[in-house]
Fold this protein.
Amino acid sequence: MKTNTPPSAALGSIRVLDLTTVVFGPYASQILADYGADVVKIEAPSGDSTRHTGPAFEPGLSAIFLGINRNKRSLVLDLKQAAARDALLTLVDQADVFMHSVRPQKMALLGLDPDTLRARNPRLIYAGLHGFGNGGAYQGQPAYDDTIQGLSGVADIMARQTGTPRYLPTIAADKTCGLIAAHAILAALFQRERTGQGQFVEVPMFESMTSYMLVEHFYGRHLVDANEPAGYPRTLTPWRKPYQTADGYVCILPYTDNHWKRFFEGSGNPAIAADPRFTDIAARTRHIGELYELVGTIMLQRSTEDWLEFCAQQEIPATRMNSLDDLEQDPHLQSVDFFVDIPDTEQKTYRFTRSPVRMEQGNVEPAMPPRLGEHTWEILSQAGLSETQITAMKASKAAIGPAPITDTDPLKGNTDEQ
């Protein structure tokens, strides 16, 4: 088990077998690992593709992989070989959660479908992280962040705001769906505590991202036969952006009636404060483009610091605009120890974000993401495979991992963490 997990961690006794790759699934399993679950990342011999995405001190530990695989262990199995599949089934018998992002048809061919695995382990939570829900018109089709952003309306709202269809410059669909997958698995585990039974949990990207998008953007479509459009005007106006000041930018959001009254009166514009287009939220929503354009003109009249001081006095929500490179120096993030430096065994230092959640009992400190196959022999030995079985898997390359880094051979009964 993981050495950085305190006994009181929320998921300290939970074993997760994670066959997911890229971002959607690994982000979900990292959240579970941050809560203390023993996440066994099961990789093909070539490894997760993100191991080679971005800058790296060494091959296989590239930037994107580092961002979504902390607090896990790595086991390499060649599931084309029967011995590897048998070893995986042994692990399934001891697991609480099995999660994958492979197309369901392929999992069925491998004998790793929900019915088969849950027949072996009725308490198993089997989470299928799919592109599209089973039984739907797109069932079984491949899905990636860009395609799901396009299908779920993200590119459309960007076109409405900017005039050009484009994707958000972040892996929004993968990460949003990863959050949904994590809380779905947690809910299933909680239900199992009451019923004693596991279940199949499906988390389809298209449906998940569409649900996320339509929280505000379903808008008038809630009113059947009212012929009202989709799309929340306040977030779609091109004027919704950081406002330029005399010397920089401010992110300001007067929201309540009192916020707006104080903003206009305090900035020397009492007539605008009394304008019926802007006196209540319904009117402001109808005239949101005009309102934000006026604010943009007013904000140019003072410096960034002047506006931040004014907004603090008037109790109007406002902040400066951080760049990505500013975040490590942000005084709040520094004061809550959000960034953590971890020295590695190879004399390099890596910087990570910690989990944003703090729990009174059992916080888990960030640990290095695993090298490819780093824990293969340890995990197989802990699962009860014999030395003869593991030696044969080594020879056939059904399982792959580096040699033990100590004089103690884990195959001879030592199962301590390396």
Q: What stands out?
A: Residues 405-418 have pLDDT under 50 and may be disordered. The first strand starts at residue 15 and ends at 18. Residues 132 and 204 are 5 Å apart (CA to CA).
